[in-house]
Amino acid sequence: GAGVTPTTGLRIGASFARGAYLTATEFAPSLPQVDRTLTLVGLEAEYAVGYTKISGEVVHSAFAAAAGTFGATTWFAQATQTLTPRWAVSGRHEGTSAPAVGACATFCTQPHLLANELTATYRVTHDVLVKASTYVRQPYGRTDWDTQGAVQIVFQKRWW
After folding, report:
1. Could you tell me the sign of the dihedral formed by the alpha carbons of 65, 138, 17, 27, in that order?
2. Are 127 and 157 in contact (CB under 8 A)?
3. Distance (Å, rounded) from C-alpha 115 to C-alpha 55?
4. Closest by alpha carbon to 90, among 147, 50, 58, 133?
5. CA dihedral sign of residues 16, 55, 140, 121
6. What are phi and psi of 19, to 5 degrees?
7. Does residue 70 surpass a pLDDT of 90?
8. What is the largest CA-CA distance in the chain?
9. What are phi and psi of 104, to 5 degrees?
10. What is the pTM of this model?
11. Which residue(s) pair with 146 in the sheet?
12. Residue 148 has what pLDDT?
């Protein structure tokens, strides 16, 4: 991978990988003895200005199999806004599309997972944060959404 910072606050990166995810020695003797390969391509970007940071990433995977090549993509976009020295809000949208495989690959649509998260953060002390979040997701193969809420107390301390 490689990245570049063309101007203060902006970072852009790309990555690439290719290799076997399943080798011929792992197959049963009755199956074709050929390595199965995976190709990954990723793009990412981040922009920070003032008290706002926006970032995102997209990674596409291409799985080579006996029946052909199957693709999957995962992505996210997120933003954080510092409101005051103690308060911040953030949001995130993410998704994944999994490959439709087997007999389904010829007539099914690609299954998706979608999720959204909103968080408010309050800094109690330098080492303690309180976060309140709501998380909404639509799992693979479903049309309805799950909704969850959470409150966290986070202790963070740099020891060295």
Report:
1. negative
2. yes
3. 16
4. 133
5. positive
6. 180, 180
7. no
8. 65
9. -70, -25
10. 0.77
11. 137
12. 95
φ, ψ for residue 95, nearest 5 deg: -160, 160
Sheet strand arrangement including 112-123: 2-7, 10-22, 36-49, 52-65, 68-82, 87-97, 112-123, 128-138, 146-155
Provide the token pair at 122: 């309050």
Q: Which residue is it, tokens 């990954």?
A: 40
Would you state the structure tokens that stand for residue 4, as one six-digit string?
Answer: 């570049």
User: Average of pLDDT values for 14-24?
Assistant: 88
Tokens of 41: 């391509």
Question: How do 112-123 and 68-82 pair as beta strands?
Answer: unpaired
Could you write out the DSSP letters of every residue in 47-112? EEETTEEEEEEEEEEEEEETTEEEEEEEEEEEEEEE-SSSEEEEEEEEEEEPPP-GGGGGTSPPPE
